[in-house]
Structures are given as structure tokens and as C-alpha cells.
């Protein structure tokens, strides 16, 4: 469903937020890494009720916005030219583009090596690197899912129906109502520690859809250092 945009005043601050209405009974508020505030509300919730809820949660919202502000500005967009660096599993690798009779990408001697039939075309190099990263993500995320499930008292209860790797604008991952685990494809750039945090976080949503006390109690039990991992993720991917 399309989102509407509302505002709530809190002292001298104006909190601008988007509202997504869904078939549900409760209202939830999220502050996303790109400093967007998102409210998921019941379909029949009035705008006045939503604004009042945001106003009550304003101290927490402002605290989260200040937290994410430390990671601005974001790393400049990659140009996919030889010599620049690219993150893979938390480490920087220098990109090297080599003319070739066929297209190929490999990690070799600490470099991201790209053999390309069109070495002078950055757009072509971009597609080769992105395709390779996606292939690695499909393998690595499945591996880490099995490991993360082992953290839970009953791993069989947190098996998602599928893993969906997708380009997400402002989230690292999500667990859909149909128990599909959605992971941001760019997470392959993060360290294994950070990837495990995102997957474990989303697995906790299988039994606890919202970020309530029960959710954080479970997350704290299965991953006691989750806050440290979360901070590492935000710093790596800034």
C-alpha cells in the first residue's frame, strides 16, 4: 500500500514520518538507518491517533535519529573503475579490471579481479561485479542462516519458508508474515558478524513480529552481543 506523510511536533523539533496502513491491530514505529521514520498502522487508525503516538515516542525517535546521524554522510557511490575499493564480507578489496575474451570475476591476492570483454565500460564492470556479489550472497546467506538457527533453543521453529535477496532502500532485512526471510543484497559487503546479527534479528521475528519486550528478551538470549554487532554493521556500511 502507498505511504502517506505526516508530521508531529516535539518541543522545537518536527518529526516527519511516513505511514503505511496494513490489516493489523497494533501500531509500530521504526527509525531506519537512512534516518527515515516509518509508522506501520492499522487501516482504520486516524491521523490524529498516529501523530499522538509518534509524539509520545518522540524522545526515543530523536535518540535513534542522533544515533544514525553519526554515520552520515554515506560512502560515495562506487564508479566501478580500476583502483577503487569495494567491501566484501567486511574487508576492502581493490578493483582490477582486465581485458578478457570472456567475462569473469574472482577474488585473488587481495584484489577483486574482473576479466571483461568491455573493460572500458564502467556500466559493464558494474553489472559483472553486482552479479558476482549476488551469487556470493546466495551462498553465504544460506550458510549463515543454518548457523544462526543453531543459536535458538528449537532451531526447527525458526526455519523460514525461503530466503529472498532483494535491493532494499533502508532496511538490512525483514521477516514477512508468510515467514519469508528478506535480506538486503548489499549486506554481502558486511562482516560475517554483522550478517549473523541481521539474520538472527529477523529469525526472532518468527515468533515475535513486533519490537516488543519479548522480542528483545529472545534476541538478548540467543545473541547477547547483538548491540555491539549492530553498531559494527552501521559503521561498516556507512
From TrEMBL:
Domain YgjP-like metallopeptidase residues, every copy: 25-235
User: Per its UniProt entry, which superkingdom is the organism in?
Assistant: Bacteria
Name the CDD domains for this protein: M48_yhfN_like
Q: What is this protein called?
A: YgjP-like metallopeptidase domain-containing protein
Q: Which organism is it from?
A: Aliiruegeria haliotis
Amino acid at each position: 500500500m502507498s505511504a502517506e506523510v505526516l508530521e508531529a511536533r516535539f518541543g522545537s523539533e518536527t518529526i516527519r514520518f511516513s505511514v503505511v496502513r496494513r490489516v493489523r491491530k497494533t501500531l509500530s514505529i521504526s527509525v531506519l538507518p537512512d534516518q527515515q521514520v516509518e509508522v506501520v498502522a492499522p487501516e482504520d487508525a486516524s491521523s490524529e491517533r498516529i501523530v499522538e503516538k509518534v509524539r509520545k515516542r518522540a524522545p526515543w525517535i530523536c535518540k535513534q535519529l542522533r544515533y544514525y546521524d553519526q554515520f552520515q554522510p554515506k560512502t560515495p557511490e562506487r564508479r566501478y573503475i580500476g583502483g577503487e575499493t569495494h567491501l566484501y564480507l567486511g574487508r576492502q578489496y581493490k578493483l582490477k579490471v582486465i581485458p578478457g575474451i570472456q567475462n569473469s570475476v574472482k577474488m585473488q591476492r587481495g584484489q577483486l579481479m574482473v576479466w571483461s570483454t568491455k573493460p572500458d565500460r564502467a556500466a559493464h564492470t558494474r553489472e559483472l561485479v553486482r552479479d558476482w556479489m549476488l551469487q556470493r550472497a546466495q551462498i553465504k546467506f544460506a550458510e549463515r542462516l543454518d548457523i544462526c538457527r543453531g543459536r535458538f533453543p528449537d532451531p526447527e521453529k525458526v526455519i523460514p519458508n525461503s530466503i529472498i535477496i532483494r535491493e532494499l532502500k533502508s532496511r538490512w532485512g525483514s521477516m514477512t508474515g508468510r515467514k519469508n526471510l528478506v535480506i538486503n543484497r548489499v549486506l554481502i559487503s558486511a562482516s560475517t558478524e554483522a550478517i549473523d546479527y541481521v539474520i538472527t534479528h529477523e529469525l526472532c521475528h518468527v515468533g515475535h513480529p513486533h519490537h516488543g519486550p519479548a522480542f528483545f528478551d529472545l534476541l538478548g538470549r540467543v545473541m547477547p552481543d547483538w548491540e555491539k554487532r549492530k553498531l559494527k554493521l552501521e559503521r561498516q556500511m556507512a
